[in-house]
Fold this protein.
Amino acid sequence: MISIFDLAAMLLTLSAAFGFLNRRFLRMPHTIGLLVMGLLASLALVLVDLTFPRQHLYADLTRVLDQVDFTAVVMNGMLAFLLFAGAMSLDLRLLRDRALSVATLALLGTLISTALVGGAFWAVAQALGSPVPFAWALVFGALISPTDPVAVLATLKNVNVPEALEIEMQGEALFNDGIGIVLFTVLVAFAAGSGGEAMSAGGIATLLLHEAGGGLVLGVVTGYLAYRAMRAIDDFPVEVLITLALVTGTYALAQKLGASGPLAVVAAGLLIGERAPRYAMSDNTQKYVSALWTLIDEVLNSVLFLLIGLEVLVLRFQVAGLTLAACAVPIVLIARLVAVSAPVLLFRWGGNLCLGNVPFLTWAGVRGGISVALALSIPESDAKPAILAATYAVVLFTIIVQGSTLGMVARRTLRKG
């Protein structure tokens, strides 16, 4: 049994080594380069194992990775820190100006995409003879429709876009995962045969209010308490600890109360990022707090994207499901196009949404570790292998292909927007 320290040592060492090789030779964006190198290393090990079966390299690394609970690592570990770091860097005043755009894309866009992806995925599965019932197809739609805040924020670091559009994308990514997780929870219960009551309109509204609304309120309360504590002192080590305690305490408390942990830490991060630098932090404290959260963001992002690449070794794909997985990529892209276009057309009178930005917003719909983590958490069923393969296909395509070409798409489309 390998220890947690050994696992951390392996992942950090591989992240550093692959990061160096990527910077020295491939020169791809850092997180995309780590994912690609992790994926290539996984495939190389599979080939070595097939060529030299007595070496057992593939089996040894697989045993190590089997001890990593990807869902727990992402949803109950990395996610809180990454969302808080992203929310702290977001300009709340600019976000308020784009509130309608962000709310529309996060809520209406996610609902439209879930329905479209679920329906199309089910129809293609039926045509291919794959055992994916309609309820489980909707589950796939719910877990793959929200753009991944971690992947989006990492991708935007390498792309120059107008500030207002960047705020819109960051806000959508930070908030729509909470909506998607609520939909995912309801639809999994229904698909598993235990959620008939929860699928009523009143049940969904209550769950949404409790999880999403409760998470936002909790984040504002804990964020304000942390802000007042930071304002009462001027001691950067203590203030750094307060931010760490805020993230871990808020996320843990949200889980205990049944509220949305992601939305809670986003709300707390927005409040701290807006008020603390102006009213509670000295210049020295700001320097240390900013450096800490930049470092946390970079390190955890590196490890997460590396893990996504290495997880290929332990995921159980079925060859019959690969065709359906390939079809999932255009399905998700088309659904993203419709989900972005519909709110833009519906609310154009507000002046906050621009039809010229639709191609860029469609291509910028990057998915990442959250979708993989949710797919892995699905109860065992005949539909799970197909959903897992489709999820992984979409995640790899959006991060590698869309993420690496997003700058080119921005240059060609945003000039007209």
Summary: The domain at 70-413 is CATH 1.20.1530.20 (Na+/H+ antiporter like fold). The mean pLDDT is 87. The longest helix spans residues 201-231.
